[in-house]
Amino acid sequence: MVQKLLRAHASVRKYKDYILSKEEISELVETAQHAASSHFVQAYSVIWITEELKKEELGKLSGNPKQFETAGAALLLCADFHRLQVAGELQNTIIDIDTTENVLVGTVDVALFAQNLVIAAESKGYGICFIGGVRNEPATISQLFNLPEGVFPLFAITLGVPDQQNEVKPRLPVAAILHENTYDDSDYEKLLKEYDQTMADYYVSRGANQKVATWTKQMADFLEKPRRPHMADFLSSKGFHLK
Hints:
By secondary structure, the protein is an alpha+beta fold. The protein is 46% helix and 12% strand.
């Protein structure tokens, strides 16, 4: 049953007119908290956005305004070492957050927490969409939500009752992901060409937003140039110089 739920995931970008209650959001967050956490630091915080103006502004800043318009709930997911600094103060200890490892730990903690939240939400019939566009304007978004030093936004999640459900995208073949004992790229060219055809067939046959495209071309276009180079300076402004 769980595997069937996981395999059915598809992003939802349009929702029916239903607003999740505080009790529903609290339950999802509490469930998400049971995700694994490195050394149990639990380096995450969630901003539940109920003010319409703030939700609208976050949609604009992230470049995804329409997804926020109909969402039954909008959440901003943040890595949080400020709370850990407060914990250190209670023990008369100065916590040095300024390491690359802490950025990695916080990012992984948020991702694990978020995936738990998403699975819990989808198990209740809700649809969700991750919005990485939050990292387009992280400094402005930090000001909008009063994020202190040691806290940085990673992505948002919109969720609600699906009004429009997309087909599930075919994933890379397991043979391209699973390596036994050693990394092996000898079949990549063959596997990726086959996957390109699978994705091309999917894009031209799906119910909405049909297009002519392949995965390797999309990835080449997407990664040809560095993305969001401002993130290094932004993280530095939050106390992380990647030492």
